[in-house]
Amino acid sequence: MDSTDLYDAHDRERRVEEPPKRVEAPERTPFERDRARVVHAAASRRLAAKTQVHGPQMDDFVRNRLTHSLEVAQVARDLSRALGSQPDIAETAALAHDLGHPPFGHNGEHALHELAEPCGGFEGNAQTLRLLTRLEAKTVDASGASVGLNLTRATLDACTKYPWQRRPGTRKFGVYADDLPVFTWLRRGAPDGPRRCVEAQIMDLADDVAYSVHDVEDGVVAERVDLARLDRPRVWDAVRAWYVPEADDDAMDAALSALTEVESWPDAPYDGSRRSLAALKNLTSDLIGRFCGAVQEATFAAAGGPFVRYRADLVVPEETRIEMAVLKGIAAHYVMEADDRVALMGRQRELVAELVEALLAHAPTALERAFTDDWDAAPDDAARLRVVIDQVASLTDASAVAWHDRLVRSGSGSRGGWRA
Q1: Which of 51, 131, 235, 277 could form a disulfide with 135 if both were Cys (CB 3.0 to 4.6 A apart)?
Q2: In which domain, by residue range, is 270 found?
């Protein structure tokens, strides 16, 4: 049986019913159409100019948000196929998972979260849902209001990494208050509570796998990380501060020892040669295979499938979780916590704050047309602030700098020619 047949009419439903296409085209499943819509979205193109860890202008080798998303999509598709779920759904969720991220990566996200406090905060995953279901232009409803890309329920649910509203004691959430109607629609039929569909779990794991492995690879090539000489105490501190607060030294020691036993783990510094780069590429391939293989084996051992929607859950062994956290901690300590990086991040947060302030002062004239319409329709100051946050979140790194130069440094309120 084709895995697509495991998804029923409820899974394939779109918020706005769409008539059959008038022009002849190759027959595609609803989930293939979803994937095409995300690939062709303007927000997807902008990811090429948004920070992953290093800024996209810093080096031709390092990842940006688009290349990261493509790598996550490849991992998600392969794992989904191995588990017997619909690979187009997991791949689309992976391609979409970072669409809501603002300029300057997680640093920009934290800055916008503080600035957006009066309207409910900012979270990249909640912004992704908002973009897919409202901000990205593709389909309108009977009233003329945008419903975004009008994806199927199964695909939208797979894109929902954190299926809950903002709540005390947690930084992560997946929906803003004014997007609750579409969230309620996409979660119709899901179990009560915060459980994610298995396709969302696959997307999340693929993100973790790619993030942990590729950020270390970028750090090695940038000569910030030497895997043959690691400062364990400082790396362990970074693991606890950034990712796994409860991790103990023994567990992390065991995880690093297991990783160093991988045959391709280097025993000498990276020297920039093709041979050295090939060895590094072999390591990333081996680590991805190690993590995905462990999860696949554990998942099959726990349940018989089918691994579709809410019929089963992904199983991530604790050892695998800690090994990925150790790799992420290496990148955090040697890259994100580096003095030059910390200073740059401070300047980026200042730029974002000044840009939001300037846009509020010059709105709606300073906003792009779509956001001008949103501003005019906003019922109160909180809603108008959300419009400005949406506008800033849509910008690339270079565009944010260009807008800041025009608005803050020159004091102009004109829209013309701001895009970098």
Answers
A1: 131
A2: 198-340
